[in-house]
Amino acid sequence: MGTSTNYKASPNWSDTKQQVTQTGGDGFVTPQKAASLVSAVVSQMTRESSLGFKGSSGGGAGSTGGGTGGGGSTRASGGSIRNVARGVGSFLSDVQQKGFEQALVDRGLSDLSDKSPDEVALEIVDILCEPTSLIDDTVLRDALIDMMMDWSEGKDSLEDLGANIESASSNIGGVLHELMGHYIYHVFKSVGYQGVLKTHGFEAAESMCGQIRDYIEARVSSIESTRDLASVDWSGLDGSNVVDEIVADTVDLFGGTE
Fold first, then answer.
1. What is the H or E stretch that residue 246 is in?
2. Cβ proximity of 70 and 235 under 8 Å
3. Is there a contact between 97 and 167 (Cβ–Cβ < 8 Å)?
4. Could you tell me the pTM of the whole model?
5. Pairwise CA distance, residues 233 & 238, whole Å
6. pLDDT per residue as tens digits for the range 58-83
7. Which of 159, 170, 252, 254 has a 20 to 30 Å separation from 115 between CA atoms?
8. φ, ψ for residue 53 (rounded to 5)?
């Protein structure tokens, strides 16, 4: 799992860091304690504009990070997580409408015969995180890599990866909620891991993070997403509104305060 020191947390995180460090020495993290810790992290995320959970995009249509349109400032459109979420939505819409291979071709990935499914998944991450200047930290990239690696895990061919992503494209809302869950986990790890490591050791830090990851995944999997999002204009107002709703749902799910 490794360490994560990408996000430079402000002094406002001190209470949350202290809570995480104390819990790291307990061994087993109860569901109630996991809920409390993740709620504290999400609440703090809503207070820091750079993390993209504060407020809404304001109806702006920023860069979709791999979509087919848009422009403007990442700050005006609610932070990098919202830009990348729109990019993921745009990509999966194209996969659903055109197929996996054509969606890749449209994004400049046409000669992949010598690449493994994991390598192709990482190529997709690179595209969805463009332009790289909009990504404030690698926490978000790590979250996207986690999701893509879930899709490529155990796949022996590009065709198998494509089939898995085509299946995922039938539930774009569910995928975007999943992305938010990965993102929260990596923010949690980035602000809390080092304190537990220094105070309680490697095994305690790894165990705590694993339990927090399991808690977040279980909560996200409980969300039912039934809306068909394949025809959304992800570079426009509709795309911004959908992502705003996904973020708001996520904040509500984990008891944060926006």
1. helix 237-253
2. yes
3. no
4. 0.87
5. 6
6. 554 444 444 443 333 333 334 589 99
7. 170
8. -100, 0
